[in-house]
Amino acid sequence: MTALDITSLPKVSLHDHLDGGLRPQTILELADEVGLETPAADAEALQAWFDEKSDSGSLVEYLKTFDLTTGVMQTTDALARVAREFVQDLGADGVVYGEIRWAPEQHLQRGLSLDDVVEAVQSGLDEGVADVEATGRRIRVGQLVSAMRHLDRGLEIAQLAVRHRDRGVVGFDIAGPEDGFAPERMRDAFDYLAREFMPRTVHAGEAAGLASIRSALFDGRAMRLGHGVRIAEDITTAREDGDSTYVTLGPVAQWVKDREIALETSPSSNLQTGAIAQWGDELIDHPFDLLYQLGFAVTVNTDNRLQSHTTLSRELGLLVDTFGYDLDDLAAFQLNAATAAFLSLDDRQDLVDQIVDGFERA
């Protein structure tokens, strides 16, 4: 199966950060407009800088690259442009539904309000959808408003998300440094969201382990887990006489599996940030295949297309090359994502039908 074949397939992107999906040339042009210094003067060299800085094996170091991307996203025009190009790039990659997460509180340095930045991003997303549809393709997108878990504005951002739920926002997330900043710190925000019936996904099981996942499920009432790969810490495998392998799920893993709580895995990013370091440092060591074979609701995502120098089609291609997946497997990943999308039941069924139709024609 070639990358071109995968690009043509209908895909669902659930975990894709707006400030991690800028085009290098756009960064240079926006930085020039506001007088922000960049570490490279041309797009190719700037991409190489992101490649180097993102392969540290540390989530903390990985996150430092966002100082540059958020630095150029501080005006309404810049936010709208980045959002528009983001959707254009999703459409070019064959994505038919994308949830785009970002943290509005990181874009207030030049005097914009929280509502201003959400509206600016939505205007860009709408323009991007129109651009994609003008090419004869179909795409739908929604905003996932994220609160930075270390900045203690969770309730305020949750209220922002609810205010805009009928104007493009489809859900809430918490992002940023995971280790040491458990979801329980924002329990008031999650209580409010539950009362308002607002969908929630929570970054957990990336830079921290089972305790973080437990808090996401209990305190955050998470409907999906952002990355979630360290749920594998709650899985025990043992080989006995012969070739038989026995697998035992702990209580957290069993809960996540039984309730089909989607895992928003991002293979390349998980390698870059060290999320799977305890199992190895190559894609073959990623617990993705174990989770898939055990029946977990795994989904495939990019996390940050710029930092990982990737696309959703590339991530799927890497899994095909590593684990030998075929078209049916790729369809399963997309159907898992469609089922977990923060859409109405009818809209999720339409999305499922679109994916099934697209894969049948492949």
From TrEMBL:
Top-level EC class as recorded in UniProt: hydrolase
Instruction: Tell me its family.
Output: Belongs to the metallo-dependent hydrolases superfamily. Adenosine and AMP deaminases family.
Needed cofactors: Zn(2+)
Keyword Hydrolase annotated: yes
| The organism of origin for this protein | Galbitalea soli
| Highest rank taxon of the organism | Bacteria
Q: Adenosine deaminase domain location, by residue?
A: 10-356
> What are the protein's UniProt keywords?
Hydrolase, Metal-binding, Zinc
Recorded E.C. number(s)? 3.5.4.4
GO biological process annotation, one example: hypoxanthine salvage
InterPro entries, per database record? A_deaminase_dom, Ado/ade_deaminase, Metal_Hydrolase
Q: Mind telling me which Pfam families this protein's record contains? A: A_deaminase
Which NCBIfam families does this entry report, sorted A to Z?
A: aden_deam (TIGR01430), PRK09358.1-2 (NF006847)
Protein name, as recorded: adenosine deaminase
Q: Which GO terms describe its molecular function?
A: adenosine deaminase activity; metal ion binding
The Gene Ontology CC terms held by the record are: cytosol
